Amino acid sequence: MHKVQLGKSDLQVTPICLGTMTFGEQVNEAAAHAILDRAVELGINFLDTAEMYAVPARAATFGATETILGNWFASRPGMRAKLVLASKVAGPSRGMPWIREGAGMSSADIVASCEASLRRLRTDAIDLYQIHWPERHVPAFGALYYDPAKETTQTPIREQLETLATLVRQGKIRHVGLSNETPYGVHEFVRLAEEHGLPRVASIQNPYCLLNRSYENALDETCDRLDVSLLAYSPLGVGLLSGKYDASGITGPDAPAGTRLSYESVRKQRWGRPDALAAARRYNQLARDHGLSPTQMALAFCYGRRCVASTIIGVTSLAQLEEDCAVWGTPLAPELLAGIDQLRWEMRDPAV
C-alpha cells in the first residue's frame, strides 16, 4: 500500500487504518495482539484507538483497548516507532460518568485524558490526538437537527486549541484531529489555528459508508478547500454491509450473538433503525448481482473515493482482517457505481 499525507501535517499513513475499538470487548488481548501483528505484516502503519474504548462503552472496559495496545508495544521493542498512533479525548459525558467528573470537556480534562492515554499506551507521544466528539452541542450519533436551546458549551474552541498546543509543545502529542464534527466546527478550528498560530487540524474522523454518505453534502467541500483529510469510520455500517444480517426476519434484537448489532446500546443508535437494515439488504444484493460479496463492494466503495484519505476497519478475527485488506485495489464498474448512486437517491442516508 502507498501512503497518504494527512492534511498539512507530516503524517504519512496507509489508506487502510486498523481500528481497535473491539479489543477488550469482542476480542481478547491474545487475539488482539495476533491481529495487530498480522496488520503490520500486511503493510498497515496506522492504528486508531480512544480513551473510551472498548465499545460498546461501559465502565468495566473503559481504557481497556489502550491498555491492550500498550502491552503490545511493550512486548515488541521498536514497533511503536514504525507506526502512526491515533487516539481520542472523549467529549462531554453523553451518559458515561466513568470517563470524567462533570458533563463538560475542560482544558484540565483534555490534559488529564491525554496523560492517562499515554500511560495506558506506554508511549511518550500520540501522533494524532483527536477530539472524539465536539464539546459544544451538535447533531451527532443519529440526532438529525441542531437545537441551539441545548447548548451547554463551557470551553471555547480557541481554548481547546490552546490546550492542545501546550500538549504539542510538551511533546505529548504531535498533531491534532477532529471526529464527529460539522462544517462549522472544522472551519472554526482551522480559522482560529491560523489566526492565532495554534495547531492546525490534520484530519476529521466521521462516519462514511453506503448507509451514511452525509459527509458528501457539506463537509466534503469544507475539508477539501481547507485541506483536512477524512478518516472514514464504520465503512461496513457496524456489519450491516457485510451481509451477516440479510437473512429473512432478522431485526436488531434477532442479531446473531456476539455481533455488534446484538448489543442493545448499538441497536438504539442509527445503525439499528429498520430502514438502515432494509437499505443494507438492497446494497448487499446489488453487490451480489455484480459478482461481489457485500463486504467487497462496501469497502471498495470507501477505498476508492476521492474524499477518503484512510478507511478505518474494525475486525474481530484474523479472517476478517485478511478479507478486508484483500479488497484493496478492487475496482467498481461504472454501472455498479451508478447503481449505488441510484439506491442512495431512493433511500438517502438511513444511518445518518
Automatic annotation (TrEMBL):
Cite a single Pfam family from the UniProt record. Answer: Aldo_ket_red
* Residue ranges occupied by any NADP-dependent oxidoreductase domain in the UniProt entry: 15-343
Q: Which UniProt keywords apply?
A: Oxidoreductase
A single Gene Ontology MF term assigned here is:
oxidoreductase activity
User: Sorted alphabetically, which InterPro entries does this protein's record hold?
Assistant: AKR_Detox_Biosynth, NAD(P)_OxRdtase_dom_sf, NADP_OxRdtase_dom
Gene3D superfamilies for this protein: NADP-dependent oxidoreductase domain
| Superkingdom in the source lineage | Bacteria
Name of the protein in its database record:
Aldo/keto reductase
Native source organism of the sequence: Comamonas antarctica
